[in-house]
Amino acid sequence: MFEEMGVETGVDVHSLLGISRYLKEILSGVNLESSLLRAGMPKQREIDLHS
Q: Is the pTM of this model over 0.70?
């Protein structure tokens, strides 16, 4: 993801994931296709660019 690489996208991914979870609950009969919803947020990791 761009955010993980330090590139600002203007998209609040945490809010997007939250609303996706909310919609999944209230629209229980609807299949919401979302890779992010299935996988969740990636784990934060430190990247050493000077190696």
A: no
